[in-house]
Amino acid sequence: MSLSIRQLPQALGAVVTGLPEKFDSVLGEQLHEAWMEHLVLFFPQAHLDDERLVELGSLFGDLAATTPGEENDARDYMTKLGKGGEILELDSDKERGANIWHTDLTFAETPSIGALLSMQVCPERGGDTMWLNQYRAYETLAEPVRILADSLRAKHGRAPFTGTAVHPVVTTHPVTGRRTLFVNRGWTAGIEGLSSIESNAILRMLCEHAERPENTVRWTWQAGDAALWDNRCTQHYAINDYGDAKRVLHRVAIYPRAAA
Ligand SMILES: O=C(O)CCC(=O)C(=O)O
């Protein structure tokens, strides 16, 4: 079967089928191009074991389970698997905190550029994940609000549980050159230089604007599916509607390749 990439009709996302046995640099380039265009790639029934998860993720950068440095990653206590501890196991028996819109690790100076997630044990019903398009969120702000957002910087993180970092509220994607909103409800704590009344009101407005259903896509998982997202221009939300059912995923976080 040859590689096929089908764009979804929603604000972001494409479905990839026909992954070859061997993951090489040609495949890496094809997937990278599609990833930059569609922001999230879904791989139904890819059945990536941990070795293949690491192999596929490595096509796009260096891998770590969470933050590569010891930056007080809030999820450092979770199970890390793989030869280099680069796989994070997300087990519903231990943690269900991802049912808030967030971008991973924005409390770090250098957050991951993306992540690859593979569904291991899937609830019979529920447990979907949603993603939203932060380019679209930025581009659909009214011009005066866009100009305001362009001028702001925000603090991220919740010390002492996580590290803290300051990032511009609007960033430029290093590959596509597109401007993107870069705040999220999960980790953005406040806007620099504003009163708490001003900061809370602006952050709430930006987050509510980004989270509108028009900016989203939703994936209903089956065991064996995988998803690859760009952390620089998306947010995601794990829907906690599956009661006591078990849900287990394996995830690698992708970082820019260290200079050789
Ligand atoms: O459990 C999910 O569907 C998403 C997990 C998540 O939010 C994350 O890996 O950051």
UniProtKB/TrEMBL annotation:
GO terms for molecular function: 2-oxoglutarate-dependent dioxygenase activity; metal ion binding. It comes from the Bacteria. SUPFAM superfamilies: Clavaminate synthase-like. Residues 5-252 form the TauD/TfdA-like domain. GO terms for cellular component: cytoplasm. InterPro entries: AtsK-like, TauD-like_sf, TauD/TfdA-like. Keywords: Dioxygenase, Iron, Metal-binding, Oxidoreductase. PANTHER family: ALPHA-KETOGLUTARATE-DEPENDENT SULFONATE DIOXYGENASE (PTHR30468:SF1). Belongs to the TfdA dioxygenase family. This is TauD/TfdA family dioxygenase. It comes from Yinghuangia soli.
